[in-house]
Design brief:
- The chain is α/β, with parallel strands linked by helices.
- It has three domains: 3-284, TIM Barrel (Alpha-Beta Barrel); 301-390, no CATH class; 400-514, 2-Layer Sandwich (Double Stranded RNA Binding Domain).
- The protein is 40% helix and 20% strand.
- The chain has 16 helices and 16 strands.
- It has helices at residues 30-43, 57-69, 83-93, 110-117, 121-136, 154-167, 183-196, 216-225, 247-256, 273-284, 305-313, 342-351, 358-374, 380-391, 436-448, 493-514; strands at residues 11-14, 47-51, 74-80, 100-107, 141-147, 171-176, 204-209, 230-233, 334-336, 378-379, 399-407, 415-422, 425-432, 453-461, 470-478, 482-490.
- The chain is globular, with a radius of gyration of 24 Å.
- The site of 3-methyl-2-oxobutanoic acid has 9 residues, from β5 and β6.
Amino acid sequence: MTSKAKKDQVLIFDTTLRDGEQCPGASMGLQEKLQVARALARLNVDIIEAGFPIASPGDFEAVHEIARTIKGPRIAALARCVDKDIETAGRAVAPAGKRGRIHVFLATSAIHRQFKLRKAKEEIVKAAVAGVKKAKEFVDDVQFSPEDASRTELDFLAEVVEAVIDAGATTVNIPDTVGYTVPEEFGKCIRYLKENVPNIDKAVIHVHCHNDLGLAVANSLEAVRNGARGVECTINGIGERAGNCSLEEIVMALRTRHDSFGGAYTNIKTTEIFRTSRLVSQLTGLHVQRNKAIVGANAFAHESGIHQDGMLKERTTYEIMNPEDVGVTSGTELVLGKHSGRHAFREHMNTLGFKLTGDALEQAFNAFIDLADKKKHVYDDDLVAIMQQNISQQPPGAYVLNYLHVSTGNVTVPTATVRLASGEEILEDAACGDGPVDAALKTIDRITKIHGTLEDFTLQAITTGKDAQGEVTVTVRFEDLGLMSGKASSTDIVEAGAKAYLNCINRYLAQKAQA
Ligand code: KIV
Ligand code: ZN
């Protein structure tokens, strides 16, 4: 690409911290959200949707802290067209100053009007306009979303869009809330708005597609082809139900096939994609499938002999993107050894995006030395895993694994002895189980007296070699709060399982403390 015209820029609106976090089990604490927000800023997204401040005091605090500390992107807060929501969102984004945005939404489709809102069309237009005007009292930058737009009558959708732009909306976002639309239809919808809303040039059109039919990226691309200039998306495509348009896929599709989209481009620093994906996966506990486009472990792996032969002769025979362009270089790179000092460690963590000082540095460095003692090679992925365990929210009374001993074998009853620290208190117990992991988790249940139901347990090697760290992801259902995911890694998979399970319990406790 040579010269890039401003009119061809597609803004990337990242909603990992809002719609992404709505994914069952993906909830994050304040420190985790800040870490993601910093990674998004490094990725150079244009707008970070930091949360839905009215939803809980924790959401408010996260949006406020992100607005206060993150420099670069605009910071958006979601609100219904309800005064209290909008006032709360206004206070939450205030520290971002001119970069603060309020995103108000109201459903417009017949099905939502009739069954959810019980409002006539005129009332919807009135409430949408009032919502935008109210938001304007707090910020200049106001975004409006007609929820379920893709199932809204086109002429009514155009009427709403015109009215909210007249009221001061500077961005109009067209959501495919239930992932129902298909590319041709959605493209036509955007074109229709471009051609039938007289004041459309006064606002930027965004699109927000869900992935229920696996079409979120395809629908967003077709919208861009038809004039949308903002795409709302999440890292790894996480989000409500089947998720949202995946940031890495839309960005790399526009970059790799800019010829097909009239030169449309984004300003994303693509070399940051891979590590941001890993970070979000670590912090949310949501595993990235191996064959996931762009960021899956197999995305650049060539298995068949014919492909390998072609690759050796000329990379582009089977590779349409350069792995380095999305930052796939360091996963298997040796970075630090057991003799690396604190300074080298701190500097290296800095390049990975973790700014460590004081106690946090000390804690992470000790964890690194422990790991380097057990494991010959320490890779970037190992370090990210260490950080996940260090920065995860630790509510008062959080449990930390102090000691684990399991006895197992084909003729022994698997038994675990576990010691947990909770604040100043040290708690110990033992139990038998169907296997060493089951025994360890049962013992944790006995100590914590919290009984979650294990719904999923997956184990993956995150680095290479026989001494690779095993990464365990668990999903646990708690009767009162639903699903929580947790992740942990260790060279010992029983220890990783126990830590991942504790990670869920600590998240559960943190949410209970916030509720
Ligand atoms: O999917 C949706 O409609 C939303 C809106 C709040 C934009 O997430
Ligand atoms: Zn959504």
